[in-house]
Amino acid sequence: MPRAEVGSQKWLANKMKAKGLQKLKWYCQMCEKQCRDENGFKCHRLSEGHQRMMQVFCQNAGRFMDGFSKAFEHEFMKLMRTRYCKTKILANAVYQEVISDKQHVHMNATVWVTLSEFVLYLGRSGKCKVEHTPRGWMIEYIDQDKIRREQDAESKRKREISLEQRHQRLIQKMVEESRKRGGFQEPEYTPLMKTSDEKLRIETNLAKPAAPTVAAPEKKGNIFKEFCKTAKPSSISASDESQKSGKDTYKRKSAIETIMEQHNFKRHMEGKGNETQGAEAPIGAAKEQSWLMKGIYVKVILQSHPLYKHKCRVIKTTDGGSQALVQDIDGSSSYKVDEKHVETVVPPAGSTVMIVRGQHRGSTGTVTESNPADLLASIKLDGGKMLENVLYDDFSKID
């Protein structure tokens, strides 16, 4: 009887039957062919294609065995991770579900001869918890991702605790130094002195309502004219009436009136220019707040910035020093950053730095000693003056 034509329905049916779940001893893993009986398996072993595959297998048997073993373990652990991640189940039940797939890798092609050896391997490698019971081997999946997340959270918590301890030590050291200089005074707690026969008195400033008075009959006139006369604002008459009657006649301003007054006051202050002292105050405040200077090195701390955690050199400053144009060390790119998105670069002892804050702002010197635990350093200026306990934020590295 001739063979079915390739691609026909009969050929496809034969292929599906050949890859079906039948006896494992009649399955060839190298050729991925399932034979129906012993005679068919014998004919397959004597075929030319099987002989070529066996020659390839003999050249590097270990590589093929490891590949089949990894594929079988991957399918088994994938099923454990997705379906039985939080339950304890028989290993044989999971194995039966694995081999129900026609395309599965047979255990006969792996390095494990029996299912018990494979279960013991999972227990030794820490991938599953295994337990031998009268029913058989029970296994339970160990979530490595959860353990890794817990370890990361624990390490993060330790880093936060260490940072908080460093701040506490710095504050405690500053308190001790202030106590030595006499600038720190311990609070004194005194007991509450109160006699038993003392009376409690609560006073309120509520004004008593005025007694109703009977007004004398007035002459008849135009009511609207009288109302308009009394409604005219007069600060002098209002103050006199408040003193006479004892009532508060202050009228609250509306929100619109308040906004208009603030706007007029702002325009008035801007018109004065540099003649008034109020115009000089914001400039001085801006100079004190800005610390960026040309030539210093800074480190970008904004996570969304392309140069995040990169050390850059300030080329020039803009907007009164609140922003700066920085360039990478290798000179590949330049960006404009804000001063709150960068921090100073603290070099090791012996390096040249520039003071960016305080009365010595703009002066250069050399780092003689650094104390990372307290975030302090000692700097010797070029003029010979020695600065002690300088904060890391008050100086930065220069060329």
TrEMBL record:
- UniProt-listed GO biological process terms: DNA damage response; DNA replication
Give the keywords, sorted. Metal-binding, Zinc, Zinc-finger
- One GO cellular component from the entry? nucleus
User: What's a Pfam family this protein contains?
Assistant: C2H2-zf_KIN17
InterPro entries noted in UniProt: C2H2-Znf_KIN17, DNA/RNA-bd_Kin17_WH-like_dom, KIN17-like, KIN17_WH-like_sf, Rib_uL2_dom2, Znf_C2H2_sf
Mind telling me which SMART domains this protein's record contains? Kin17_mid
Molecular function (GO) terms listed? double-stranded DNA binding; zinc ion binding
Cite the DNA/RNA-binding protein Kin17 WH-like domain residue spans from the record: 52-176
- PANTHER family listed in its UniProt record: DNA_RNA-BINDING PROTEIN KIN17 (PTHR12805:SF0), KIN17 KIN, ANTIGENIC DETERMINANT OF RECA PROTEIN HOMOLOG (PTHR12805)
For this chain, the family text in UniProt reads: Belongs to the KIN17 family.
Q: What is this protein called?
A: DNA/RNA-binding protein Kin17 WH-like domain-containing protein
